[in-house]
Amino acid sequence: MFFLFRVVITAVAVWLVSLMPLDVVVTGGNDTWWSRALVFVGVAAILVAVNMIVKPIVNLVTLPVRILTLGLFALIINWAMLMLASWLTSHLSFGTLEVGGFWKTLLAAFLISIITVMLGASKKKAKRRA
């Protein structure tokens, strides 16, 4: 259930960032609106899987660098995870995540992180009220 929730939140974040002029483009699923939505969900599932499997290992390996940069290297790690997800989706047939240059992709990774945190926090607040 947690994975599905994170996938939906990340799909919304990727969709919002793809609407901005940041050279983040999701292609595929052009037949109907639901097939397009499923492409965003598929791309988000790959991004969440990369963040759940690869990112903890990278965080552990780069811990000294993150300490030296006071945590700013986490932006580069987020950029790398977005690039890895883009590379993985380029080998799939249902849809692809295409990203642009370094700075725009870095900003896109930062915005995806911020949007997912904001949407996840709103769910946690609603859960505490109930």
What's this, in brief?
With 130 residues, this protein is mostly helical. It has helices at residues 2-18, 33-61, 63-68, 73-89, 102-129, and strands spanning 25-27, 96-98.
How would you describe this structure to a colleague?
The chain is mainly alpha-helical and 130 residues long. It has one domain (2-121). Helices cover 75% and strands 5% of the residues. It contains five helices and two strands, in the order αβαααβα. It has helices spanning 2-18, 33-61, 63-68, 73-89, 102-129, and strands at 25-27, 96-98. It has a two-stranded antiparallel sheet with strand order 1-2. α1 (2-18) packs across α5. The model has no long low-confidence stretch (mean pLDDT 91).
SSE topology sketch:
Elements: H1 2-18, E1 25-27, H2 33-61, H3 63-68, H4 73-89, E2 96-98, H5 102-129
Antiparallel strand pairs: 1-2
Helix pairs in contact: 1-2, 1-5, 2-4, 4-5
